[in-house]
Design a protein that fits this description.
alpha/beta, Rossmann fold, 2 domains, 4-stranded parallel β-sheet, 8 strands, 11% strand
Length: 296
């Protein structure tokens, strides 16, 4: 092989490998979108879980291990949401930079307040998360908090570009507050409305906008409803004058559909992450789509 021809190719490969971009792995789509908005052209982001999948149950792929092996930073939801699938990927990747406790590992649940923290944990209580409800992304007020945590960690790993990350964070927070004002106005007529959800995934959203959670179609988290429980939920819906049943995209819809049809109330399918439904393409449009579906 001609050595003179080989050298430019080698230099090209070296430039690509040391281009300066941080390699970031995000467990879920909403995280990847926030990291991309803060890091922009300073980061290359890979998202592991598909948005329309059950976030508790992701089937690991060999490609996940390869992506993790190259990562400078791993950003996870935390609150043990990934406990069933992510630890084995981290272990097999054998990348010391992204191990828990290292600078290259960011657990977002450590930066927000978790609700529904159980006083005791038992399998008899269903799929209970001992640290609390991990679906904190569903409170839009947590997005600026998450963005700031990401900004601080990117700055720690890449201090020469601190001003860049902080400017992007300021831009996101300003635009986010504008959207919050609009969303609050759109949902103001629904404050105090009693609702039923299939799984306790939208609690943060309901709490933020003043909905009252009357109950769940699941008898316990992660436990499919029995005929007896469905009958009890039916009575409760009538008694409490519930007008809405909210359902995620990944759990079976049979029970919710039955109750909605039998009682002539609205069944609304809501996205829980970026990519969960058509139109929920980023963190902003996830909430736009949720609110559109509620108010249409």
């Amino acid at each position: 092989m001609n050595v003179l021809k080989f050298i430019p190719l080698l230099l090209l490969g070296m430039h690509s490998a040391f281009s300066g971009s941080l390699q970031v792995v995000a467990s879920y789509g909403y995280i990847g979108d926030i990291v991309q908005r803060i890091g922009k052209d300073r980061v290359e982001v890979v998202v592991l879980a598909r948005g329309d999948y059950n976030p508790h149950i992701i089937i690991p792929k060999p490609s996940y291990i390869a992506k993790m092996r190259r990562a400078d930073l791993l950003v996870i939801n935390g609150g043990q949401l990934e406990i069933g699938w992510l630890p084995q990927i981290i272990r097999q990747a054998n990348n010391s930079a992204v191990q828990p406790g290292e600078r290259g590992f960011l657990d977002l649940s450590q930066h927000v307040h978790l609700i529904d923290v159980p006083t005791s944990v038992s399998r008899e209580l269903g799929d209970v998360h001992p640290e609390g409800n991990p679906h904190f992304f569903m409170d839009p007020e947590n997005i600026p908090v998450i963005a700031t945590a990401v900004t601080e960690r990117l700055t720690e790993l890449d201090p020469d570009h601190q001003a860049y990350y902080e400017a992007n964070n300021k831009e996101l927070r300003t635009f986010w507050q504008q959207q919050m004002t609009r969303w609050e106005a759109q949902l103001k007529p629904y404050r105090g409305e009693k609702v039923v959800e299939y799984h306790k995934i939208f609690d943060y959203f309901f709490n933020r906008f003043g909905f009252l959670i009357a109950g769940t179609v699941e008898p316990l988290p992660g436990i499919p409803p029995t005929a007896k429980h469905i009958a009890e939920v039916e009575k409760m819906i009538v008694r409490e004058h519930v007008k809405f049943i909210f359902q995620d995209v990944y759990n079976p819809q049979d029970a919710s559909s039955y109750l909605a049809a039998r009682l002539n109330i609205k069944l609304i399918i809501l996205p829980h992450d970026v990519g969960a439904v058509k139109g929920a393409d980023n963190v902003f449009s996830v909430f736009d789509e949720i609110i559109r579906r509620i108010t249409q």
